[in-house]
Protein backbone atom coordinates (compact mmCIF):
# COMPACT_ATOMS: atom_id res chain seq x y z
CA UNK A 1 0.00 0.00 0.00
CA UNK A 2 1.42 3.36 -1.03
CA UNK A 3 1.42 6.06 1.65
CA UNK A 4 -0.14 9.40 0.80
CA UNK A 5 2.28 12.28 0.38
CA UNK A 6 2.72 14.41 3.53
CA UNK A 7 0.75 17.63 3.84
CA UNK A 8 2.46 20.53 2.08
CA UNK A 9 4.63 18.21 -0.01
CA UNK A 10 5.49 19.30 -3.54
CA UNK A 11 5.34 15.71 -4.73
CA UNK A 12 2.16 15.06 -6.76
CA UNK A 13 -0.21 12.20 -6.15
CA UNK A 14 -0.11 9.57 -8.92
CA UNK A 15 -1.82 10.90 -12.04
CA UNK A 16 -2.41 14.36 -10.54
CA UNK A 17 -1.19 16.97 -13.06
CA UNK A 18 -3.09 19.95 -11.69
CA UNK A 19 -1.00 23.01 -10.76
CA UNK A 20 -0.72 23.97 -7.11
CA UNK A 21 -2.17 27.45 -6.51
CA UNK A 22 0.64 28.25 -4.08
CA UNK A 23 3.40 27.57 -6.59
CA UNK A 24 1.58 29.38 -9.41
CA UNK A 25 1.08 32.34 -7.06
CA UNK A 26 4.79 32.26 -6.18
CA UNK A 27 5.69 32.29 -9.89
CA UNK A 28 3.45 35.31 -10.45
CA UNK A 29 4.81 37.10 -7.37
CA UNK A 30 8.46 36.59 -8.34
CA UNK A 31 7.72 37.72 -11.91
CA UNK A 32 5.91 40.85 -10.69
CA UNK A 33 8.73 41.75 -8.29
CA UNK A 34 11.37 41.31 -11.02
CA UNK A 35 9.31 43.36 -13.47
CA UNK A 36 8.69 46.23 -11.06
CA UNK A 37 12.35 46.32 -9.96
CA UNK A 38 13.42 46.48 -13.60
CA UNK A 39 10.95 49.25 -14.47
CA UNK A 40 11.98 51.29 -11.42
CA UNK A 41 15.73 51.07 -12.12
CA UNK A 42 15.16 52.00 -15.78
CA UNK A 43 13.09 55.00 -14.70
CA UNK A 44 15.88 56.12 -12.34
CA UNK A 45 18.51 55.58 -15.04
CA UNK A 46 16.59 57.69 -17.54
CA UNK A 47 16.13 60.41 -14.93
CA UNK A 48 19.66 60.51 -13.49
CA UNK A 49 22.20 59.20 -16.02
CA UNK A 50 21.70 61.12 -19.30
CA UNK A 51 24.31 63.72 -20.24
CA UNK A 52 26.77 62.76 -17.51
CA UNK A 53 29.91 60.71 -17.10
CA UNK A 54 29.51 57.05 -16.04
CA UNK A 55 29.06 56.63 -12.28
CA UNK A 56 31.97 54.60 -10.85
CA UNK A 57 31.12 52.12 -8.08
CA UNK A 58 33.05 49.52 -6.06
CA UNK A 59 36.42 50.84 -7.10
CA UNK A 60 35.64 50.55 -10.80
CA UNK A 61 34.22 47.02 -10.69
CA UNK A 62 30.80 48.41 -11.63
CA UNK A 63 29.79 51.47 -13.63
CA UNK A 64 26.37 53.01 -14.22
CA UNK A 65 26.04 54.41 -17.74
CA UNK A 66 22.92 54.82 -19.85
CA UNK A 67 22.81 52.77 -23.05
CA UNK A 68 19.84 52.32 -25.40
CA UNK A 69 20.24 48.93 -27.03
CA UNK A 70 18.36 48.05 -30.22
CA UNK A 71 19.78 44.51 -30.34
CA UNK A 72 21.00 41.77 -28.02
CA UNK A 73 24.31 41.65 -26.11
CA UNK A 74 26.86 44.14 -27.51
CA UNK A 75 24.16 45.36 -29.92
CA UNK A 76 24.11 42.14 -31.95
CA UNK A 77 21.06 41.79 -34.19
CA UNK A 78 20.34 45.53 -34.10
CA UNK A 79 19.02 45.38 -37.67
CA UNK A 80 16.35 42.87 -36.63
CA UNK A 81 14.93 44.51 -33.52
CA UNK A 82 11.39 43.36 -34.36
CA UNK A 83 12.45 39.71 -33.95
CA UNK A 84 13.22 40.06 -30.23
CA UNK A 85 9.67 40.85 -29.03
CA UNK A 86 8.35 37.90 -31.03
CA UNK A 87 10.84 35.58 -29.33
CA UNK A 88 9.91 37.04 -25.95
CA UNK A 89 6.19 36.53 -26.57
CA UNK A 90 6.99 32.90 -27.40
CA UNK A 91 8.92 32.53 -24.12
CA UNK A 92 6.03 34.04 -22.14
CA UNK A 93 3.59 31.64 -23.80
CA UNK A 94 5.87 28.69 -22.98
CA UNK A 95 6.02 29.71 -19.30
CA UNK A 96 2.23 30.02 -19.12
CA UNK A 97 1.93 26.53 -20.61
CA UNK A 98 4.46 25.19 -18.08
CA UNK A 99 2.46 26.73 -15.24
CA UNK A 100 -0.50 24.49 -16.13
CA UNK A 101 1.21 21.60 -14.29
CA UNK A 102 3.56 23.49 -11.99
CA UNK A 103 3.85 22.00 -8.49
CA UNK A 104 7.51 22.69 -7.64
CA UNK A 105 8.56 25.69 -5.55
CA UNK A 106 12.12 25.92 -7.01
CA UNK A 107 10.72 25.77 -10.53
CA UNK A 108 8.19 28.48 -9.64
CA UNK A 109 11.07 30.77 -8.61
CA UNK A 110 13.06 29.92 -11.74
CA UNK A 111 10.19 30.47 -14.16
CA UNK A 112 9.11 33.60 -12.29
CA UNK A 113 12.57 35.13 -12.72
CA UNK A 114 12.59 34.30 -16.42
CA UNK A 115 9.06 35.65 -16.89
CA UNK A 116 9.76 38.90 -15.03
CA UNK A 117 12.97 39.50 -16.96
CA UNK A 118 11.35 38.71 -20.29
CA UNK A 119 8.44 41.06 -19.61
CA UNK A 120 10.78 43.85 -18.48
CA UNK A 121 12.63 43.95 -21.78
CA UNK A 122 9.43 43.31 -23.75
CA UNK A 123 7.96 46.52 -22.31
CA UNK A 124 10.92 48.41 -23.77
CA UNK A 125 10.55 46.76 -27.19
CA UNK A 126 6.85 47.56 -27.31
CA UNK A 127 6.59 51.05 -25.83
CA UNK A 128 9.93 52.89 -26.00
CA UNK A 129 11.36 54.91 -28.87
CA UNK A 130 11.66 54.68 -31.80
CA UNK A 131 8.37 52.78 -32.01
CA UNK A 132 6.24 49.74 -31.23
CA UNK A 133 8.06 46.40 -31.59
CA UNK A 134 11.32 48.20 -32.44
CA UNK A 135 11.88 50.03 -29.15
CA UNK A 136 15.39 50.18 -27.70
CA UNK A 137 16.06 48.45 -24.36
CA UNK A 138 17.39 50.64 -21.55
CA UNK A 139 20.64 49.21 -20.14
CA UNK A 140 22.69 50.82 -17.42
CA UNK A 141 24.98 48.36 -15.57
CA UNK A 142 28.52 47.78 -16.86
CA UNK A 143 31.23 45.73 -15.15
CA UNK A 144 35.01 46.35 -15.34
CA UNK A 145 34.55 49.20 -17.80
CA UNK A 146 32.20 52.17 -18.25
CA UNK A 147 30.90 51.24 -21.70
CA UNK A 148 30.80 47.45 -21.81
CA UNK A 149 34.38 46.95 -22.98
CA UNK A 150 34.68 43.54 -21.30
CA UNK A 151 31.08 42.49 -20.69
CA UNK A 152 27.78 43.62 -22.27
CA UNK A 153 25.99 46.49 -20.54
CA UNK A 154 22.85 45.02 -18.94
CA UNK A 155 19.84 45.77 -16.76
CA UNK A 156 17.92 44.04 -13.97
CA UNK A 157 15.69 42.25 -16.49
CA UNK A 158 18.79 40.62 -18.01
CA UNK A 159 20.02 39.65 -14.54
CA UNK A 160 16.66 38.11 -13.69
CA UNK A 161 16.65 36.12 -16.93
CA UNK A 162 20.17 34.78 -16.39
CA UNK A 163 19.50 33.81 -12.76
CA UNK A 164 16.27 32.06 -13.75
CA UNK A 165 17.94 30.10 -16.54
CA UNK A 166 20.90 29.08 -14.35
CA UNK A 167 18.49 27.87 -11.65
CA UNK A 168 16.49 25.93 -14.28
CA UNK A 169 19.65 24.21 -15.54
CA UNK A 170 20.56 23.26 -11.97
CA UNK A 171 17.10 21.82 -11.37
CA UNK A 172 17.26 19.80 -14.58
CA UNK A 173 20.71 18.44 -13.72
CA UNK A 174 19.52 17.32 -10.28
CA UNK A 175 16.41 15.63 -11.69
CA UNK A 176 13.86 17.97 -10.15
CA UNK A 177 10.66 18.03 -12.18
CA UNK A 178 8.14 20.86 -12.61
CA UNK A 179 5.36 18.64 -11.26
CA UNK A 180 7.22 18.25 -7.96
CA UNK A 181 8.69 14.80 -8.63
CA UNK A 182 12.32 13.81 -9.08
CA UNK A 183 14.14 11.68 -11.64
CA UNK A 184 17.12 9.53 -10.66
CA UNK A 185 20.31 9.09 -12.65
CA UNK A 186 18.84 5.96 -14.22
CA UNK A 187 15.85 7.94 -15.50
CA UNK A 188 13.49 6.33 -12.98
CA UNK A 189 11.11 8.51 -10.93
CA UNK A 190 12.30 8.63 -7.31
CA UNK A 191 10.09 7.89 -4.34
CA UNK A 192 10.10 10.28 -1.33
CA UNK A 193 13.38 9.85 0.57
CA UNK A 194 15.24 8.32 -2.34
CA UNK A 195 18.37 10.11 -3.47
CA UNK A 196 19.24 11.25 0.06
CA UNK A 197 22.17 9.88 2.03
CA UNK A 198 19.79 8.05 4.38
CA UNK A 199 17.93 6.49 1.46
CA UNK A 200 21.19 5.46 -0.20
CA UNK A 201 22.45 3.84 3.03
CA UNK A 202 19.24 1.85 3.47
CA UNK A 203 19.39 0.68 -0.12
CA UNK A 204 22.99 -0.46 0.33
CA UNK A 205 22.03 -2.44 3.44
CA UNK A 206 19.23 -4.19 1.56
CA UNK A 207 21.65 -5.18 -1.17
CA UNK A 208 24.31 -6.44 1.31
How many domain modules? 1
Number of helices: 5
Q: What strand order characterises the main sheet?
A: 1-2-3
Give the structural class.
mainly alpha
Shape: elongated
Helix content: 40-55%
> Element order, helices and strands?
HEEHHEHH
Mean pLDDT: 86
Low-confidence stretches: 197-208
Proportion of β residues? 5-15%
Largest sheet: 3 strands, antiparallel
Function: This protein specifically catalyzes the removal of signal peptides from prolipoproteins.
Active site: 139, 158
Region (Disordered): 1-20, 180-208
Transmembrane segments: 24-45, 82-100, 107-123, 150-173
Q: How are the elements arranged and paired?
A:
Layout lengths: L20 H28 L6 E3 L4 E8 L13 H17 L5 H23 L9 E7 L12 H18 L23 H11 L1
Antiparallel strand pairs: 1-2, 2-3
Describe the model.
The chain is mainly alpha-helical and 208 residues long. It has one domain (21-181). The protein contains 5 helices and 3 strands, in the order αββααβαα. It has helices at 21-48, 83-99, 105-127, 156-173, 197-207; strands at residues 55-57, 62-69, 137-143. The protein has a 3-stranded antiparallel sheet. Strand 1 (55-57) and strand 2 (62-69) form a beta hairpin. Helix 1 (21-48) packs parallel to helix 3 and helix 3 packs antiparallel against helix 4 (156-173). The longest helix has 28 residues, at 21-48. The two termini are 25 Å apart. Mean pLDDT is 86; it is low at 197-208.
Amino acid sequence: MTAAPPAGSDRPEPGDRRPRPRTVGLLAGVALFALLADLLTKHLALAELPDREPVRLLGGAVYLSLIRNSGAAWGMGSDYTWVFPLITIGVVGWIVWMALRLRSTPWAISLGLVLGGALGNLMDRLFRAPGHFVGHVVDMISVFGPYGEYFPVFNLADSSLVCGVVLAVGLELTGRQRDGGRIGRDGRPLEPGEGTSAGSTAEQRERA
